[in-house]
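>> received
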Amino acid sequence: MFGVNDVVSYSSAGVCEITDITQREIAGTKMDYYVLKPRMDVKSTVFVPVKNPKLIARMRPVLSSSEADQLLGSLRTLSPQWIENDNQRKETFRSLITDGLPQDLALIYKTLTVRRRELEENSRKLRSADEGFLKECEKLLSFEISYAQGCSSNEAKALIISLCS
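>> returned
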């Protein structure tokens, strides 16, 4: 169980602080909710039902500094896993981004970075959906790594980009 002031990663909201555990009544039913404030979007608030195992499974502790180092180290050696079928790729990437596991985000990022480079060599571009997935993974990874390493998200982003080049 998580507590107030814990910092967690939650699905595609990324790094969040639990600011409260509150009871709300929705459709006549009272339930306890974690109140999350995403670091990427300070104007947002995310409410996660305390007793919803499916949603709680998307909430995890933020990477430690050593875990972030391991993740960054893996970026050089990850093998891209391109999915040719557009619909299958979209569905797979969307699901993995929603789950928010750093290893999956790193794999998607590496795959799309390599694919973008291959396409650019032939004067072509990534599909817009793939470009969106790439930006989302970059944002989620850079915020979590910046939190774990105590650096700015721009520094983390530059490091991620350099390791995938």
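>> DSSP finds six helices and five strands in the chain.
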